[in-house]
Amino acid sequence: MEAVRDVLNRPLRDLRISLTDRCNFRCRYCMPREIFGPGYAFLPAEEILTAEEILRTVGILQDLGVRKVRLTGGEPLLRRDILTIVEGLSKLGLDEIALTTNGALLPRLATALKEKGLTRVTVSLDALDDETFRKINGVGYPVKKVLEAIEAADGAGLRPVKINAVIQRGVNEHAILDLAGYFRHTPHIVRFIEYMDVGTTNGWKPEDVVSAREIFEIIHQRWPLEPLPPRRPGEVARRFRYRDGAGEIGLIASVTQPFCRGCNRLRLSADGQLFLCLFASKGFPLKSLLRKGASDDEIREALRRLWQARDDRYSELRSLMPKMTRPEMHYLGG
Ligand code: SAM
Ligand code: SF4
Ligand code: SF4
């Protein structure tokens, strides 16, 4: 079916689903401990979409163009029904079902996830030295365990694994060469991500961003790189391969080279709100439609109108936008 298009003629293709706003890590740039401490009020269970509601929503959105789903959060593997969700999604005949995780629960789940139909996994890892990584993740989680998780995914056939590394000035610039070097000569793809001004709790400052250009230069000087064409329209990472054939990396320049023009993503929060942009201050209350008995046709038509009216392009307009309330990353999903 022809995908619905928005005001800027962007088709709807990708859906990112935040399965929970909870996490077993407290990464400084996402859920700083001072704010997400023991007293923090996470969403109550009854506010969170059930597996059934999620699968129904994806089925409807498929009619409007969605081909790829990414499960995220919070930490998506904390969902007890994660296997049911993946299995249900795989029955819908999507092109891709991907998941982004901090890896802590992956060794135990990798094989089952693959069996249920997960097609790709991304594991986040921001440094290769324990001291830096333990500080960043806020719970003292060791690097070794994340590397084991990547191995477990590889062993389960979820290959290549993508590795997400957010680079922050003065925090983990040294991780650029460490991670590039470690994953050279493997099928896995490290994606270096510019630190973004998501949410309002991480104290982001423009000076904290290490630009994709700088990251490129650091790697290119050591191991020369050359560009690769995008695999599909709307791909956020710019792909490069090592000239010596040692593999591939990705650079995600969300801040310095925004990719709003090709942005075909819709985001579903854990409590059932649809967001047209990572920086949108308000979501569309899908859950209330689902729970008040709307039919699939009614929901489909409401979502068609929602996407058709979309004109969001925050990253392109960043410098002109006021600092407004916007959703946190752990709630909306990265
Ligand atoms: N908990 C899972 C994880 O960490 O992989 C999934 C959710 S996490 C919000 C998804 C991705 O967003 C992670 O790779 C994380 O590093 C990234 N992320 C979080 N906050 C970010 C920020 N301020 N700028 C750029 N990336 C960020
Ligand atoms: Fe948790 Fe992922 Fe956010 Fe880190 S980036 S606090 S692992 S949701
Ligand atoms: Fe898409 Fe919004 Fe990010 Fe631009 S800022 S790429 S429109 S999510």
Please give a structural write-up.
By secondary structure, the protein is an alpha/beta fold. It has one domain (14-332): TIM Barrel, CATH 3.20.20. The chain contains eleven helices and twelve strands. A twelve-stranded mixed β-sheet has the order 7-8-9-6-5-4-3-2-1-10-11-12. Bound molecules: S-adenosylmethionine (SAM) and iron/sulfur cluster (2 copies). One iron/sulfur cluster is lined by residues 258-260, 263, 265, 277-279, 312-315.
Note the main attributes of this structure.
single chain, 334 residues, alpha/beta, TIM Barrel, 11 helices, 16% strand, globular
Straight-line N-to-C gap: 27 Å
Q: Provide the structure class.
A: alpha/beta
Q: Give the assembly state of these chains.
A: single chain
User: What is the level-2 CATH architecture name?
Assistant: Alpha-Beta Barrel
Beta percentage is 15-25%
Helices, by number, come to 11
Tell me how many strands there are. 12
Question: Could you name the CATH topology?
Answer: TIM Barrel
> Radius of gyration from the CA trace?
19 Å
- Which percent bin holds the helix content? 25-40%
> How many discrete domains?
1
Mass-distribution shape: globular
CATH homologous superfamily classification: Aldolase class I
Q: From N to C, what is the helix and strand string?
A: EHEHEHEHHEHEHEEEEEEHHHH
Low-confidence stretches: none
User: What ligand species are in this complex?
Assistant: S-adenosylmethionine, iron/sulfur cluster
